């Protein structure tokens, strides 16, 4: 029976995430795979294939609905927790892949707490995150960064932040930086209540081998350091700024 291989692979990945209790990732895969199957069923002429597709669509749709209710219940009770382990030298862990599914119109402001947004490549990582936030969060109005001050860069850190602040203003996003000498935790707090805690902060990518290798620009192709990502949800995050 000719079933779309892309849909099969996506749904299989969804089942893998589901088994690992990485429910929000599973939900994204189920929704993508279901859309492909629905589109295929609409253009299918063979009645047997259509009947098979209908059964599969209902099966995965029911599981997707179950996951939605489970995630909602865990959010309401404050018990939602997903963990992603990034293995050493693994790829496929850009910011968008890792937590892009939480970036939407419900996000009005973002707080990034990371003590190591100081050197050039670390500030470039923060710039990449800012680009993703602006593209994904249509109602974004504020980005707040809490980090440590780099007293060795002769003002470069301040200069980079000023340039970014000026550019974000064009997108009607206010950017503020607060410095802390005691900051240790690394987390991204979204006004929608999602909190992404990355063990190494934003700086979990290994440097590229050279300036003309894959992964220089596409971070899904960049090798990573080992780290753990914990995703939780809190109803106590202030919803507006």
From TrEMBL:
Cited SMART domains: MIT
Pfam family, one: MIT_C
InterPro entries per the UniProt record, alphabetical: MIT_dom, MIT_dom_sf, MIT_domain_contain_protein1, MITD1_C, MITD1_C_sf
MIT domain segment(s): 1-77
Domain of life: Eukaryota
UniProt protein name: MIT domain-containing protein 1
Organism this protein belongs to: Papilio xuthus (Asian swallowtail butterfly)
Gene (UniProt): LOC106120648
